[in-house]
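Give me the fold.
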Amino acid sequence: RDDGSATARSPATAGPSASIPYTPAPDPIREARIMVIDDEEAIGLLTEKMLTSLGHRVEAHLDPVQAIATYRQEWPHIDLVLLDMTMPVLGGREVFHALRTINPRVRIVLISGFAADADIQTLLEHGTCGFIPKPFDKAALVHAVNAGLAGMVQR
């Protein structure tokens, strides 16, 4: 039908037909709130742009200390964190542990230009949701974000 409803018809002996309005299920991936923590402004802005174009709500943080403070206040509403491993002041390993202290079930996808970093392997073994090497394209980002939102923990 044109109004988006579906008609269910029972056998003639069972009684009349019924019209049931069709309401599509919400797409939880499109409604995700994602925090990006990366000290490279261009990476943060590009990642934010790519993810908002897919319907996500994204906030990028250049300062990991401020990001931790925001996460402490907002963590029940943040579905996924994209975390750069190499930043001044606090590195990804320290931020990872700080976020885990706030919320032991935080979903984190690591980002780094240094794929051979020993910290990355260690954190992957401790339950992050994945790793995206820099530079990354939209397809790799989408794949990692969808896996993270689905709760697929890489160990």
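The longest strand covers residues 33-37.
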